[in-house]
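Hey,

Quick one before I head out. I ran the complex with zinc ion overnight. Inputs first:
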Amino acid sequence: MNPDSVQSEGLQAIAVAPDTAALEQVRIALLGRKAPLVLALRELGSLPPEDRGPRGKVLNQVRQSLEAALDARESELEAAELDDRLRRDRIDVTLPGARVERGFAHLIEQTGREILEVLVGLGYRISDGPEVDTVYRNFDALNHAPTHPTRQATDTYYIDEHTVLRTHTSPMQIRTMQSQPPPVYMATMGRCYRRDTPDATHTAMFTQIEGLAVDRGLSLAHLKGTLLAFAREMFGADREVRLRPHFFPFTEPSVEVDVSCFNCARDGSPCRVCKGEGWVEVLGAGMVDPALFGYVEGYDPELWTGYAWGMGVERIAALRHAVPDIRWLWENDLRLMEQFG
Ligand SMILES: [Zn+2]
């Protein structure tokens, strides 16, 4: 081993080590347990006594110069690496911050909450029920004959023979009456499912708000008054409502409810909301069919009468904001949704 070449080559390697990790490898090669210089120092003891002093002095000088160079290079590299890290991680507190967008309730949710608020103001209590319910509560106890067309698998999503994705929120009428004695003033909102082909006014999943009132002496006049108050809150203080005879299995008599158009002068001129009719259909309703009371305990049809209604929240939202196609409400295109934020 030639001390001069170990020193010159060592100093050269130290000088060109690009970072602290590489320098550590150089340190091991030059001064590690198996480094030639270290081995030579260890062998000093086996040399003749007269050679030991001069040889030891040379080797120790080489070691000291390498150690000093390693320490110096290490400080240099550490400082450079720190500089570099600081430059990379620097946060400029004077830059404008990234804006965090605030969320807001979806138009369907907003509209639903608004409707429920009106109903709470009229004394209704909010209930919540499952989207999966029994065939019994969805159809049988709501007076749907076994042959009723909506019971078919082409119209309704069946989980199994006895279980469906509810086709309306009306099972909540049965759940409510099963769980409490009259009088009842209940409102509920939730998703419903029907095997409809989607178009501008139908989607396979939709949101319904249902109301049920059962008390002594309730009549169609109370239903009309309730819906008039609702219509005036939602569509404007000078709205009128109109009831048209209809059929639903679980109400008798049943009606479809129209609200006077809020978009036009109602003089027959073209109107995109009412199509010149002057009236807009908003929901279905009726007096609770006394047969329903036979499916629950404690509701004597001689003592109690009731009324109920169901409305599509998407339809109400689309009408109020002149959204021509309710599928748009489910597409969640932010360019549309953000207009309702
Ligand atoms: Zn109109």
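The chain has a mean pLDDT of 92.

Talk tomorrow,
K.
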